[in-house]
Design brief:
The complex is a heterodimer of chains A (about 500) and B (about 350). With about 500 residues, chain A is mostly helical. Chain A is about 70% helix and about 0% strand. With about 350 residues, chain B is of the alpha/beta class. Classes of the chains: A mainly alpha (about 500), B alpha/beta (about 350).
Chain lengths: ~500, ~350
């Protein structure tokens, strides 16, 4: 071997990249000062940011949290020698009101529990089944915390038991790996029930928690769906699917309209102790009137109901609009075009004032329910068009492929068309959701005290008359939190469902 | 127990027992609550406090009626109404009465089929200007920019006033009072015009209220009063005489402090005796018991006390009695006799 080798026999050791190309400096060079134009823009942006923040931050970080009125705030600024700082005392005094409206203080645990359970119910729907057991842990934990919060011997015992159960299931879930668990199930271990069961029950629990009253009402309402389901199940093979569907709907309606009220009364009587006004129903929550709903609780209630109901209705409308059945198509087109042609505020006025005049005097048709129906219909019409966009984007071959496989209409929609069409429509659907959620503030115009309506009412307090930006800022911040989460979720969903492998 | 409405109404609007328009008193008694329409928020007149309890000049009148009819000043459901929903709320029976700083006009009384049962506050449209302008009369406002709420009678009054005085102005349209305050303070307009009580409340919120003045001209008549539906005169009588009782109480020197003493036994003044039920049967004529007026006055005090507590000179709004003084003090507040 000569030592005059001119061919390298080993690789040069890797050297660290130059300091100017990596880390913080590298990032800044690449992203902020990449050329003269970019540098100028960066500097201008920084000056602009400085200009905004130097005015905004002192305003936000004002030591006014404990003030009791606008004038006290002004005294605090006066002591500081500065002017125009935020008066946060109004938020400290009124944030509970901005969240719950006039909901009775002793009952506020109910909307909180309802909100917590909402997530428990949504998680299996929204996320790819985080794991059956973790979902039950979540449910047990929420219920356990509610029990502890309620206090009393019974509440604490129940709460501790539930939390204990949550801890036990959680511990097992953490200690057994996925494969071990799969093997256990294989060898006949019992699985926990599907969390979708709770998601299906939730729509009946939530109104009971919010409005209170007898538990048999939601039970009765849920039984209506059961009646309809069994009617369809047993009649569809005999009389055909369309006739079966119609009969099932009729059966459910008959249950709700005629049979449910006597059943509820009977069961209430069974569980009521005592007579007359002092009677106590064991399985009833203190009823809360709609008029006491307010603040973000009202916005979220309207928003969640409208969002949850508008998607299925919208899908049905979109399918109806593409249907070959003339009457169905005409009805759907007419509905969509009518609702889209009318501003939401008009529909709300119809709900709040016109219906009052048309309905017989003394009719008690809950105002929030009227608003819920109107907002849902409004959102559904928009949703239908968004979904129709998704349907239109599907190649015709997909429909033909579904037909070629011999799937019937509903199966084709469920297995082939809708999963693709809805995936395409996700950005549009979520935009509509966000829009609907923000539109809920329009109810302040018909006298419901949503956050914006409350801000007006709060300003009518002599202590806080003149406070504007703090209230609007707080409300805007809360709305931003909700809307931003929805938007992030939609991006997560798009990533998860991406199938183009690019 | 009132059944929760949600599920019942999910399938069908639950039809409550036939509430005919003609028996509001019976409805209120059966319900055990008075549904009183108030504004969604106006400084001094109606606003919820941090605990959700409503307070204000109009609110206290609702409480007085509830005390007279039901014996409990807190047996009131306050229904917040906006300028757009208030009349349908009353007409449809959603509320039993409206105490919502509503101006008594012919068309509202006649065409909308309501009964104004009296006037509890005489208001009028005024102008707020900054002292720096050096204006002492609204007639000097030639060429001024004026912040004005759109779609209100104040807009029409403003046009009438400037035309009658042959001077010009430039309107700056605003939507709400809060916007008006901001625009005026930001200098978007030279003067802000709305009801004088509202101007006083607005001025009270400024950092330096003394830099601003309300000009002496009042360019419109705004008699604000509670109202009820046409056609139920018995109910209208109750509301009307509750207001009159509060007014008479001030005139006769009955206050929440001395009412216990005065109502304990018949005294020297026969009118006080008749009003407080120690003599005669006025309560019975109204379909109430003998103590009705006593309870109404005890709810929040007489008219003067209610005024002083909510909008009077000791409050930040600091409204002088002015037109709203008793007739014997040179104002317009006057009650027919209790006889």
């Amino acid at each position: 071997m000569s030592d005059m080798s001119y061919v390298r026999s080993e690789m040069l050791p890797e050297r660290a990249p130059p300091a100017s190309q990596i880390g913080f400096v590298g990032w800044i060079r690449a992203n902020l000062f990449n050329g003269v134009g970019n540098s100028i823009l960066t500097i201008l942006s920084l000056i602009f940011l400085w200009y905004i923040l130097s005015a905004l931050l002192p305003w936000i970080f004002a030591p006014t949290w404990n003030s009791g009125s606008l004038n006290e705030c002004r005294e605090i600024f006066g002591a500081d020698g500065g002017h125009g700082a935020a008066c946060w005392g109004v938020i400290r005094e009124r944030w509970v009101q901005l969240l719950f409206g006039f909901y009775p203080e002793a009952e506020r645990w109910r909307p909180i529990v309802g909100f917590g359970l909402l997530f428990v119910a949504l998680i299996p729907v929204l996320f790819n089944m985080i794991s059956r057991r973790m979902n039950w842990v979540l449910l047990l934990a929420v219920l356990g915390l509610a029990g502890l919060y309620l206090g009393g011997a019974l509440g604490i015992i129940a709460g501790l038991l539930l939390l204990g159960a949550a801890g036990f299931v959680g511990f097992k879930a953490f200690t057994t790996s996925k494969e071990d668990r799969a093997a256990e199930i294989e060898s006949g271990a019992k699985r926990l029930p599907n969390p979708f069961i709770f998601s299906a029950i939730y729509p009946f629990i939530a109104p009971w928690l919010l409005w209170g009253g007898s538990i048999w009402l939601p039970v009765g309402a849920a039984l209506g769906f059961v009646v309809g389901y069994f009617a369809y199940r047993f009649l569809a093979p005999v009389v055909g699917s369309l006739a079966g569907l119609i009969i099932a709907v009729l059966a459910a309606l008959i249950w709700w309209l005629l049979l449910m009220a006597p059943m509820v009364d009977q069961l209430d009587a069974l569980f009521t102790i005592g007579e007359g006004p002092g009677a106590e129903n064991l399985l009833a929550l203190e009823p809360v009137e709609s008029r006491n709903f307010g603040g973000f609780m009202l916005s979220i209630t309207i928003g969640v109901v409208a969002i949850a109901c508008s998607l299925p209705i919208g899908v049905v409308l979109a399918l109806g609009r593409q249907s070959d059945l003339l009457i169905v198509k005409a009805l759907c087109v007419g509905f969509i075009e009518f609702i889209r042609g009318v501003p939401l505020i008009t529909l709300l006025f119809v709900a709040s004032t016109l219906l009052n005049i048309f309905l017989p005097p003394g009719t008690n048709f809950d105002i929030i329910l009227r608003v819920l129906i109107m907002v849902t219909l409004f959102a559904a019409a928009y949703m239908a068009e968004v979904v129709r966009g998704g349907l239109a984007a599907l190649p015709k071959g997909q429909y033909e492929a579904a037909d070629a496989l011999g799937l019937d209409y509903w199966k084709a929609q469920r297995l082939i068309i809708m999963p693709q069409a809805l995936k395409i429509s996700i950005p549009g659907i979520v935009s509509t959701f966000i829009g609907v959620f923000k539109d809920t503030v329009l109810v302040s115009i018909i006298g419901l005290l949503d956050p914006l309506g409350l801000s007006n009412a709060i300003r009518a307090d002599q202590d806080w008359n003149g406070v504007v930006w703090e209230l609007y800022g707080f409300i805007a911040f809360m709305f931003f939190v909700f809307c931003f989460s929805m938007s992030r979720y939609s991006m997560y969903l798009e990533r998860r469902l991406r199938t183009d492998h690019s | 127990m009132k059944r929760t409405v949600f599920f019942g109404a999910l399938t069908v609007a639950s039809i409550a027992a036939g509430a005919s328009a003609a028996a509001t008193l019976d409805d209120v008694k059966a319900r055990g609550k008075l549904n009183c329409g108030v504004t969604t928020g106006l400084v001094g007149f109606a606003a919820p406090d941090a605990n959700g309890k409503w307070e204000g000049f109009d609110v206290d009148f609702c409480r007085a009626v509830a005390a007279a009819v039901l014996g409990d000043a807190n047996a009131v459901e306050f229904v917040p109404t906006t300028g757009k929903t208030r009349f349908t709320a009353l007409a449809s029976g959603e509320v039993d009465m409206l105490a919502r700083n509503t101006t008594w006009t012919l068309s509202r009384d006649v065409d909308l089929k309501f009964d104004f049962i009296g006037v509890n506050y005489y208001d009028g449209q005024g102008f707020l200007v900054s002292k720096e302008m050096g204006v002492s009369s609204a007639k000097d406002l030639d060429g001024a920019t004026v912040c004005i709420q759109t779609g209100t009678t104040t807009e029409l009054n403003l046009a009438d006033f400037f035309r009658a005085n042959n001077i010009s102005y430039e309107p700056v349209p605003i939507e709400t009072n809060a916007e008006g305050q901001q625009q005026y303070l930001a200098g978007a307009c030279d003067t802000y015009t709305t009801d004088a009580s509202g101007l006083a409340a607005t001025r009270a919120t400024f950092e330096n209220p003394s830099d601003h003045v309300v000009l002496p001209e009042i360019i419109s008549k705004e008699p604000l009063g509670p109202l009820v539906r046409h056609g139920d005169n018995e109910w209208g009588d109750i509301v009307r005489w509750t207001l009159n009782a509060l007014i008479s109480a001030e005139e006769l020197g009955i206050t929440s402090a001395n009412i216990g003493e005065l109502s304990a036994a018949a005294g020297d003044n026969p009118e006080i005796n008749r009003m407080l039920g120690t003599e005669g049967n006025l309560g019975e004529m109204l379909g109430l018991d003998a103590d009705w007026a006593k309870r109404a006055i005890m709810a929040g005090g007489n008219y003067g006390e209610v005024f002083a507590k909510n909008i009077g000179e000791s409050t930040p709004i600091a409204l002088a009695r002015g037109l709203n003084a008793q007739w014997k003090d040179g104002g317009l507040i006057y009650s027919p006799p209790f006889r």
